[in-house]
Write the structure tokens for this entry.
Amino acid sequence: MVKLTIMDKSVVILGIESSCDDTAAAVIKDGKLLSNIVANQNIHKLYGGVVPELASRAHQQNIIPVVDQAIKQAGISKEEISAIAFTRGPGLMGSLLVGTSFSKAFAMGLNIPLIEVNHMQAHVLAHFIDSENCPSFPFLCLTVSGGHTQIVLVKDFFYMTVIGETLDDAAGEAFDKAAKIMGLPYPGGPLIDKFAKEGNPNKFKFSKPNIANLDFSFSGLKTGFMNFINNESAKNPNFIEENKADICASLQKTIIDILLEKLKIAAKEKNINQIAIAGGVSANSGLRAELNKQKDLLQWQVFIPKFEYCTDNAAMIAITGYQKYLKNDFATQNTTPSARYSLGE
Ligand code: KG4
Ligand code: ZN
């Protein structure tokens, strides 16, 4: 029988994230973030993308030092932890297994409860890490990461519905694959963002998909971009080098246009003007600037997370765990990771 912390005591949640290629741990006490540690895995840069087996091995090496650092930086002892919240999915199975197994063992050792967290829900709830400027319910969240592109109708901390999503590649994947075509290292999103700052976004035109409803598609853009680069490079072998900033700016603009077009339709359809963005691509400076530029015209109240809460982190897992703790929503030691854990399950 695990010990449940009495509610008049402080609630201390240790959050653990290991769904892809970042090993992360964070501590939240009574809803306030005390530490947030992320160990990135540089090994994947050599291969142009995340290699699942290497990711699992790196998680195994990183998890104990990362958790240790998060506890030390928070200035707490491990005996003060009320519960451990961990990412159950979606993600890479081997990576999820490391975080799940570690969390189960640590919770058992400390005789405290476990809380399972959906990674996509946590990206949305990252907006509640700093409680000063949170969206109020209901709001729409455009969650754009390396594996997902979703428009989520958020009615409550736990009541979320995906109203539009990608039919093929995710927005982050579009950035990463385009970068790879240009010979840039993984992850390409931040590099395209950097080069785009110096470029002309209207120099090159890329075709946009014509998809019904609120869904997205990015695979056609990737193919079109590859053909464009191949054709231009055949005419001028230095084409990429000579036009890097303009290519990046034009591609980035196309991706942002595709995302905002659907977000605008969703806001109109649902009659919601509280608009949030989340996930790794929400760190993109072009997307952030465009939302800030258009918000007054659209009469939107826009919520953009701090950079450190956009890409994968454990603070978002801990804050989701904190909300679940308050609802007495605990997992058992029988919990297993779920690579395709969808929102609303
Ligand atoms: O949320 P995240 O850290 O991991 C997943 O859950 O997938 O997102 C990673 C994705 C990668 O595709 C990466 O290239 C992209 O986010 N990304 C960016 C930027 N920073 C990260 N894409 C565009 N601009 C950025 N500044
Ligand atoms: Zn993520």
In short: The longest strand covers residues 32-40.
